[in-house]
Design goal:
Largest sheet: none
Radius of gyration: 20 Å
CATH architecture: Up-down Bundle
Shape: globular
CATH class: Mainly Alpha
Number of domains: 1
Helix content: over 70%
Strand content: under 5%
Order of helices and strands: HHHHHHHHHHHHHHH
CATH topology: Growth Hormone, Chain: A
Oligomer: single chain
Structural class: mainly alpha
């Protein structure tokens, strides 16, 4: 099997560096939030602030991705993220980081991620041949999961235990290195935009609205991510208060999810090639339901870690199948805008999921959200079955 192009490997290197820092940040933020407050509603605000930008900014960001050089947008977004993470690291070191500052920093980082994430998915078909999209996406998700949820969280937990500011400083440094790598990607300026921004956004909306399969997958993504945030927003409280885990052990718990995600990224394209893209999507969706149901009654950290690994595996399989599908059927000139609509619908409910999970945990206990999320996911899959089966 031939090697993927050098430009893709540079993109992959940037993803590894960036996601190590993001993983450390993801482990450190809830630990810092728990040190400030034990109210699950306030903790959920930080998680919600990270995903709100997808609801507010995704559509204009998609139009920008189709109008301007995608590599340039990516490295500039990462440079701004380096600045934000650096300021947050200084504030944590000075003891000035409360829930309000954490939420503001999470929002700023999330806003940059909207631009970066849309551009990263849209640029991939420019870097690899169409026949290699499944393989490239599988490798990208595997290395991203390894760095973000296997390497980063244990490092973040260890650094936080040593000094609370260290994981945030690491995140700032990795953003800067990633920006430098992305600045070396080949430049492919977009053609001059003929339509106003609003018209360009409407074109993406119309395309997705008229494609039943992609529209169905977008709505399924919305349900999936709502349930993910709903269940996991208070995972740190489940680990700390119910299972009595420390900062280092919490990082290792997150790393268990990464083991499954890496396996799903590596195996996802092979599974899709063997059974078909739509059956792979159905398998990925169905596999998470029992894992969520069981996570709510997990007796110890080991069982919970195994269930999180299963969720990570099926989530990566879903990503490989659905992202490759969009990249192969959406016209290249519309890819940024269609992706932005898709992800706005998909991620837009995540803040509501995080807030709802916080209130459910406050009222019913930190275990309750997992089985509720499993039931909601099963219901969404049943509703989507007719469209998926007809397409297959």
């Amino acid at each position: 099997m031939p090697r993927l192009p050098a430009a893709f490997r540079r993109l992959q290197q940037a993803a590894v560096v960036d996601n190590v820092g993001d993983g450390a940040f993801a482990a450190a933020v809830p630990l810092l939030a728990v040190a400030v407050t034990r109210d699950p509603r306030l903790i959920s605000l930080v998680s919600a602030a990270t995903t709100v930008p997808w609801l507010l900014l995704s559509l204009p960001a998609g139009a920008l991705v189709d109008r301007y050089d995608r590599a340039g947008l990516m490295w500039r977004a990462q440079a701004v993220q380096a600045l934000v993470a650096g300021v947050l690291a200084v504030a944590v070191a000075l003891g000035a980081a409360g829930i309000a500052l954490l939420s503001a920093a999470a929002f700023a980082l999330g806003a940059c991620e909207v631009v970066f994430g849309n551009a990263a998915q849209a640029i991939l078909p420019e870097l690899v041949p169409a026949a290699d999209l499944h393989r490239a996406n599988g490798q990208q998700f595997a290395v991203t999961a390894t760095a973000r949820t296997f390497v980063g969280p244990p490092v973040g937990g260890l650094l936080f235990a040593a000094a609370a500011a260290l994981p945030f400083g690491l995140d700032a440094a990795t953003f800067a290195v990633s920006a430098a790598l992305l600045a070396r990607l080949p430049r492919r300026p977009r053609p001059p935009a003929a339509a106003p921004l609003g018209t360009a956004v409407a074109e993406g909306l119309r395309w997705l609205g008229g494609h039943r399969l992609v529209r169905t997958l977008a709505l399924l993504l919305a349900a999936n991510l709502f349930c993910y945030q709903f269940a996991n927003v208070t995972l740190v409280l489940l680990a700390a208060e119910t299972l009595h885990m420390g900062a280092r052990a919490y990082g290792l718990l997150l790393a268990a999810s990464a083991l499954g995600a890496v396996a799903g990224g590596l195996a996802g394209h092979r599974i899709a090639a063997r059974i078909g893209t739509v059956p792979a999507v159905l398998l990925a969706l169905g596999g998470t339901v029992p894992a969520y149901l069981a996570a709510g009654v997990s007796p110890d950290a080991y069982v919970l870690g195994l269930l999180l690994a299963a969720i990570g595996f099926f989530s990566s399989m879903w990503n490989v199948a659905t992202v490759s599908l969009r990249q192969s059927i959406v016209p290249a000139a519309l890819l940024g805008r269609v992706n932005s609509v898709y992800r706005m619908l998909g991620v837009g409910l995540s803040p509501l999921g995080a807030l709802a999970g916080g209130f459910v945990a406050h009222g019913l206990g930190v275990r309750a959200a997992y089985p509720i999320a499993g039931v909601l996911r099963a219901g969404a899959l049943i509703l989507a079955l007719p469209a998926l089966i007809r397409r297959d």
